[in-house]
Design a protein that fits this description.
Elements lengths: L1 H26 L3 E8 L1 E17 L2 E5 L4 E6 L6 E2 L4 E5 L2 H37 L4 H34 L1 E3 L4 E6 L6 E2 L7 E6 L4 E9 L11 E6 L7 E8 L4 E3 L2 E11 L10 E18 H5 L26 E9 L2 E12 L3 E5 L8 E9 L16 E2 L4
Antiparallel strand pairs: 1-20, 2-11, 2-16, 3-10, 4-6, 4-9, 5-8, 6-7, 8-10, 11-15, 12-13, 12-16, 13-15, 14-15, 16-19, 17-18, 18-19, 20-21
Length: 396
């Protein structure tokens, strides 16, 4: 009787232990849900990215070489100007007075030169008659030479005064547009130490340039005449064609990052690109047309042993290199009971996908790029089991 009671007492405990073992076994046998992507045929492009600022091809600072008060300002921001056009005028009153004074000094110098020249000729005639000494003739000739020099000096002073008068008219040195104006009527400008900047003119904006900063790791792949796609935040979704003009040798070090200035010429016939805009650059380094392109996530995906179909085993990593730039890669597709692998040769690697070739690879096939594990939905006798899930592999 006592043994029977003991057996009846142990039976529930054994049943509960078996149920627990069965439940935990169910938890350790995940059900896989595959994350897939389609193998497409497209153009594969290898790009180098950089940023820079848009600049006018020609930028000229217009200043003044004379001091004075601005009497007139004839142009403003964004005005188109032609070479030689009057932009502003400095009050010419003092400059005109300097010209008048220089003309008076020149007239006086010429009169003095005429007097000493006549005196020299008179003394020369007397000396020929024996009525004047050689010394008197030499003194007359010296006085005349001094006055000739004074005439030349006065002529130089007059040319300088007239040039300064011309400088009171501020003229456009090039055809372009006014992008900056730092002067207004009534303002006094002082050219005593350095020429103050009154206007900044940008040349024809139908073609602009971008001064980009290319990282030292990528600069070896950026070459003159390469195609560049330029984009700005002001026009989202639109790119502007450009070409590399120059990769400069002088590097820049900013925050321990070495970059090389690269000049990119960009067409701007519509005038959408403006000086100072921040531009994103995509340099086209290499391109393969109409190729099967596998998502990079599919080539990075590495399954667990429990994901494989019957008879499948994990291939060795780094399956060797092919000819030229090609090398081996592995793609995974969903098969009966799990995943099966496809060996491929990979070629040009783009930003989102890589060129692939191989037996059994075709356009439109579904490639595994990740997996989510879900345990059994059975419940514990004591509490409801929560599914455990998470993406595995290199797809994410």
């Amino acid at each position: 009787m006592r043994v029977r009671n003991l057996v009846l007492l142990l039976l529930p405990l054994v049943a509960l232990s078996g149920l627990g073992v069965w439940w935990w076994a169910r938890q350790d046998s995940p059900v896989w849900t595959w994350k897939t992507a389609v193998l497409e045929r497209t153009d594969v492009r290898s790009l180098v990215t950089a940023t820079g600022n848009i600049e006018a091809v020609t930028t000229v600072q217009v200043g003044t070489q004379v001091s004075g008060i601005v009497a007139e300002r004839l142009v403003d921001f964004n005005d188109n100007v032609r070479k030689g056009q009057l932009l502003a005028r400095i009050d010419p009153t003092l400059s005109r007075a300097d010209v008048d004074a220089a003309e008076a000094r020149l007239a006086s110098a010429r009169a003095s030169e005429l007097r000493t020249r006549l005196e020299k000729e008179r003394v020369a005639g007397l000396q020929g008659q024996g009525a004047a000494t050689v010394r008197e003739l030499e003194l007359a000739q010296a006085d005349w030479a001094v006055d000739v020099a004074e005439v030349r000096s006065a002529e130089v002073a007059l040319r300088r005064a007239r040039r300064n008068l011309d400088y009171t008219d501020i003229l456009a040195p090039i055809d372009g547009v006014v992008v900056r104006r730092d002067v207004d009527v009534g303002q006094t400008v002082n050219a005593g130490f350095s020429a103050p900047v009154l206007f900044v003119l940008a040349g024809d904006l139908a073609q602009v340039q971008v001064l980009g900063s290319v990282d030292e790791a990528d600069v070896g792949r950026v070459l003159p005449d390469q195609t560049v796609a330029v984009s700005v935040q002001a026009w989202p979704g639109q790119t502007f064609p450009g070409r590399v003009q120059q990769v400069r040798l002088q590097s820049k070090l900013v925050d321990n990052v070495v970059t090389y200035p690269t000049v990119v010429a960009v067409e701007n016939q519509e005038g959408k690109l403006r000086p100072g805009m921040t531009a994103s650059l995509e340099f086209l380094v290499a391109e393969v047309k109409d190729s099967l392109c596998a998502p990079n996530a599919a080539l990075r995906f590495r399954p667990e042993a429990t994901m494989l179909a019957a008879g499948q085993s994990l291939p060795e990593e780094g399956g060797g290199r092919g000819k030229g730039r090609s090398k081996a890669g592995i793609l995974w597709v969903e098969g009966e009971g799990g995943l099966t692998s496809l060996s491929v040769e990979t070629g040009l690697r783009g930003a989102t996908c890589t060129e692939v070739k191989g037996e059994g690879v075709s356009e439109g096939m579904s490639l595994v790029i990740g997996a989510e594990a879900q345990t059994s939905s059975s419940t514990s006798p004591f509490s409801a089991a929560k599914p455990v899930s998470g993406f595995r592999g290199g797809g994410f």
